[in-house]
Amino acid sequence: MEARRTIRRAAALAVWVATTVAAGRARGETLVVAEPVAAAELRDEAAATALLCRVALHTPQRLVTPLPELKRALGLTTGGPAALTVTVTDTLPLLSVLSADRLLLWKLATTSEGLLASGVIYGLDGKPLGRVSARAPRGAVVELARALATSVATLAPGPLAAVPDFGVAELAPLTAGQAALLEEDEPRAARALQWLPPTVVTRLPLAHDLLRQTARSTRVPAELRARLLSLAGDSETALRLADQTLATSPDNLAMRAARIRALTAAGRLADAQHDLASLPPAQVRTPALAVAGAELAIARKEPSAAVDALLTPVLEAPNADPKEVMALVAASSPKAVGAEVQAMTLAAAQHMAETEAALAGGEQYLMTGVAMQAVAGGRPDQVRTAAGVLRPQDLSDTQMNLVQARIEAMKMVDDPALKEVEGKIQERKTSGEQIRAQVAAKAARVPSPLARQLLEVLRQFDTLYHPYVATLTVSDLEGSGSPFYSPFVPLAPKLRAGLAEAASLWPYELPAALVPGAIPIADGADETTLREAASTLGGDALLLCRIRVTGLLPQTVVDLALFDPARGVVEKVTTVLPGLGLHLVETADWVWSAAIVFVLSLVIWGLAIYFRGTVEVRVHYQTDSHDELFTIELSRTPETPELGDQEAYRERLQGMPSGQTGRKAWGTGRLTRFRRVPRGKWYVSLYGVYQMGKRWVVVNDSPIEIEVHARKASEVLFDLQHREAEFQVIVYDGRTPVSGARVWVDGNVQSAAVTDAGGNALVKVSHGYRILHVTAKGVTIQRPYHVIKTKRHEMMINLELERRRDSVARALEDQQEDPPGG
Length: 822
What we know:
This protein is α+β, with helices and mostly antiparallel strands and 822 residues long. The chain has 28 helices and 30 strands. The chain is rod-shaped and about 205 Å long.
């Protein structure tokens, strides 16, 4: 048995595919618009929006697949109940079966601004082509349908048909009847469609189709079928059906009423009046015939009193059902019925509103229609009552303008009973203006560089192409920050704003809500934690972000995690973005403190430099010297630096390169500069060795005193070419060295050198003609010397020999003074 059912299903599917493919080739491009996913409280607005969107998209160049065909195709492709719930996995089989070019899966949700329609268009290969979205205030189904159709047309090209201005309440009978027909419940569909407003039937071809389709069902009572045919404008068929029924059931008063209403709709008023007059008065007073007679009286433009005389007994009868009368009043002009009937039907509408009896099915139109007639009638007490019945979200733009105009015309703007409805109407209009302004601004806006970069990152998330993800919430992932030494800190709010902007761009066009101050979610959180966060923060999907700074350039590492609560799926992406280029970082607070300290240091350093000078030390070498190994030191004190051991010094400097510190230079050349020397008195010392021929000459002179001036150069010259020669004087007395002998040059007796225990004294003699003085043991010796070269000289002074010379000299002098014989 199961095998037979499978074979029959496969055969039916093959026939369906062949038929649909052939039809698709014969026609233009086809588009499948699935029923939207919506919450229960949005059921009426979702159905109305879907219906009007199909109306806008259905043109000869782009045919929209009818819902019955969609339902049948789903039953064949899924192998289960023929439901209208379309999943992502159904897209490719459904497109193949229907031979369609595009498929729209979408969702209707509410935001703080109103309604949001968001979905995905799928192509022939079952892959998403892009997202579509539209926004409008609550109840503005026409505006929402037009905007959604415009968005769909960007991915399913073709012109758009005109969409008439209807409210949710006016379309409620049509959407309720359509839903019942898709469930193959024709009687329920007939009960809803009988309340269709004539304006909807006139302006929407779909209404004609549904009325005729329902009227063909034998499961619907004959009198109701005749009524539906009359509404569809097929009065002749309605009359034939009535005559056939009355031929077998002449006492069927409901069918006689339907026949009279069919004659009235066909304009055969005389025939309708004849049928009504042929009935006994008692039958004319039955509810169905009374309503038929009232409709005929309105068509014949009889006074409202005559209409009220027929309808009042119907409304006053115990357990009366006022719906037929309410439908007649809602479809007539305000002056067609009297104040009494209007008040009674308005009271019935008020009762419906209080008991929510009209919030389901086609009866919703009756409540709104009667209230609108009361407003149009202009009776203040009835206008106040109608204000409590009307819901602005059920009205069309035309109806809202009418309500506002009547309130202003009656000078009831400040009436407390009308404040609420007038405020809600104005709120809806203001919200619409704001949404249109936002859409225009978005179209003219140039995306920021950050949003363009992040848009490429978001393309890696498959969840963003899920048709039933209509809103996105952006929050923080734990771990954003930078190392303590980094001069930059990341800007998580900037990243969140960039992600929200990127999500709002094509091909996603997802409104994203930012949640500042939310507790960051730990990385690696389990599904339960993520679901709780998504439930708390809101949105169809939760996008978590973390930003970290690396390097000094700096680069920012961005970690993203996208959680889809409906499927329990988490997607993760990590990318690196330039922090400075995209303004994702700012300077850390400590940098400014460090900068202030640095600037102050520069100022102090600059001031110190400003009040410092330069010392230039020049050294004039001996003409025939070589291998100079000198050290120059600056000191605040006049002490001469110690050269130390000559050999050790020479080895140390020969083994190291020349260099300089702030106050000392070694391995110097002919010119050495000491910069940034504080002003004041300084002592410059030159010491070291150099080679003259095969002999090493030691230089360890006393320092030269200089005065350093701010921003000026002070010059010091060490002239080794014209420096003093060293004279080593050795004083003996006979063979005994004389200690304590004094030795000086020229008249510089105050700087006389004193011989040591070995009789040695070292004096320096400058170039030129000089006289060396030696005095010891009462003997003073003077020796002239012409110093030409800077070399060490040795001078032997023997006091005993000097005495002898002195004695001989004296003797010679005496002989000259006393000649012989004198």
